[in-house]
Each structure stands twice: as C-alpha cells, then as structure tokens.
Protein: Putative DNA modification/repair radical SAM protein
Amino acid sequence: MTEATLEKLKILAAAAKYDVSCSSSGTVRRNDGKGVGNTVGGVGICHSFAADGRCIALLKIMLTNYCKYDCAYCVNRRSNDIPRATLSVSEVVDITMEFYRRNYIEGLFLSSGVVRNADYTMERIARIAKDLRTIHRFNGYIHLKSIPGASQELVNEAGRYADRMSVNIEIPREESLRYLAPEKNHQSIFEPMGYIRQGVLQCQEDRKTMRHVPRFVPAGQSTQMIIGATPDTDRDILLASSSLYGMPTMRRVYYSGYVSVNTYDSRLPALKQPPLVRENRLYQADWLMRFYHFKAEEIADDTHPNLDLEVDPKLGWALRHPEAFPVDVNRAPYEMILRVPGIGVKSATLIVNARRYRHLNSSHLSKIGVVMKRARYFITCGELTAGTIADTSPEYVRKILTAPRKPKGENPLQLSFDFS
Structure:
C-alpha cells in the first residue's frame, strides 16, 4: 500500500466512524475451498457482533467523503472545510483483500458521500462488491450503503453481492429532516428500502421453485437514526422504528446519539456530550418492541413522550401501570409474564413450561434465572403474597429499585477507624 493510499484510508476511515449501523449478522458464507475468506472468526479494525454473539471484524470506510449535500448534522457536509479523499474501485478492492490476507478483517462495511449523482456513486459501490465476489472470490461479509435516489437496477446489482444493505433514515420526522437537510426527503430514503425489500422477497419466492438461486441481501437491511439533533421525542423515534420493523426485511434500527460536529450551525443543539443514556434507553425500548411484544405507543405515550432516563423502559411501563400487577406466574399468560421486570424471554419460556409439572415458588424462579430483586414487587407465586406494587406504591418500588447499590463485602455494622 502506497503512502498516498494510506493517507486516504486514514481520512475515509475517520469519516465513516459516525455510522453505527454496521452490525454483521444473519448470514453464513463459508469458504468452499476455491475462494478467499469466510464469515467465521477473525480480528480487525471495526468490531461488530453477530446475532449469535460472534465478534465480526470489519474494514469500515467511505468510498469518498466528498458530498453534494449540506446536511447540518453531518461532518462530511459540502460546506465543511475538512480533509477530503476518494478511493478508486480498485483501491478499495485491493485494500480489502490485503487487510484480509493479513488477518486484520473478515468483512467490509462500505458507505459513501454522494458525488455527481446517486447513480454514479451507487454504480461504483456495486462494482466494488462485484469485483470482490467474482474476481477475487471473496467470501467474507459485505455490508453496503444504498444511496438514496439510486435506480432500482443499481440497488439490485449491489444486492446480489452484499450480505446486508442499509439506508439511513437519519431523522424520524420529515419536518425535522427538511429543517436540517433541505435537499433530502423521506421518499428518496424509503425508495431504496423498497427496492431491497422487493429483491429479498422475490429471491425467497424464486428459491421455492428453483434450486440454485443466488441469495439477495441474505442478512436483510438496517437503518440508523440520529438522537438529540432535533426536538423529536422518543415517541416519534419509536413510532418511526415500529413502522420500519413492519417491513419484513428490516433487521435492525440503530440509534446514534448526536455528536456536536458542526457547532457553528445555529440549527443544531449545543450539546456538551452525546446523549448516551437516552441512546441506551432507546435500544432497550427497541428490544421490547422486537422481542417482548410491546407497542411503541405503550413504551412512550402522549403523557410520557420521552423515556425515563432513571429506569429502563420495561420497569418504567410497569411503574406507570400498577393496575396490571401483581402477575401470578403460575396462571398468567406468557405475554403478561414477559412484561414483568426481572423476567426475560428465556425465563418466561421456562416458567410456562415448568409450571405444567409443578407449582412454582420463588426458589424455582431464582433457579430458572428470574431476577427476584426486581420481579418480587410485580409477581405472586404462592409464598410471595405481600410487598408487591399493589400493596405499596409505584413511588416506593421506584425508590427501592433505583437506590444506589452498596459495594460488595461492605458490612453496614462494621466500625471503621481512621488512624491517619
């Protein structure tokens, strides 16, 4: 690798760091003995985690950080005076293969600023993936950004070689998007999402009747929303996410706390640091929608449009709805057991299966994996009949569960003396 290429790589790797939608998961592309690479094992530059817990190392770069758009929240906006660079198709391919052979990575995450027009940029992105797969027989993971406004033909071409594709919605409401990025609109973002969805569904139908059909974006698609750059509430964000999860191919919505990169723009909030706690709460709420059968309207309603930063969303919902508790774990349906703080999906499943054979008590629940310190205020199970949220109050339970934890091994009755 030449010094010039290395310098460009440094610039474009730094430019790509604000995009968090690069979790590689849901695909297995094993080496058949004729190619190079696979999606198992490895160490590298950007670490993401697969659905099964594996750590995937990716080369995470932009094709170029030149961009014709002037989005207020983006470090690569047209009006910013920053170092710029562009890699050629062959340079990206060569860097990817060189890094793989050195065991730095096992996959590629490629995004890009928009130069000339969407089709020109998308064509180069698709060609990189095609060359890696067909010329170099690269079997590693490839995640490509689909450029808003690109034609369906180019999106389909990229989808034939990518494991996952993503289009970042960035801002949940159209009004807020137009305020910070007047040149963009949600329609141009939803169109390539639709192309990807159509391609995946068509591939699934073709595989029902034909044996050898190339996979199309087998790991589905993802997107990202910026948190804290606009006055949009958590309810707005979760409603947008819920709508996106209605698409059968949408695997993940990522949330990125806004980083103050363009402090001179008066349209942006003056944040000293990214809203990381809020970001974490949104991920927890997202988990509730995906695996716990919660609706966005339940997690953040009109009365409480923003998530409680002091407690997790599941506990927050339980404290706002004391009338739903206590839950009898020996009789309640699975869906209601899932809503008990301290009980996860695995524990709820084990409870439903175990209670068919015996009456469960607190000892059984602890062995199953229930966090009794939290759950005891929201359940009954024979000997646990008092001290629940119905017997006390939401305020009392909240105070108990949010009290600072004492360090392990500390005895409150132990006297201490200062001999200094």
In short: The chain has 15 helices and nine strands. The beta strands are 46-49, 55-62, 107-111, 141-145, 164-166, 221-227, 250-257, 327-328, 379-380. Residues 24-29, 37-44 have pLDDT under 50 and may be disordered.
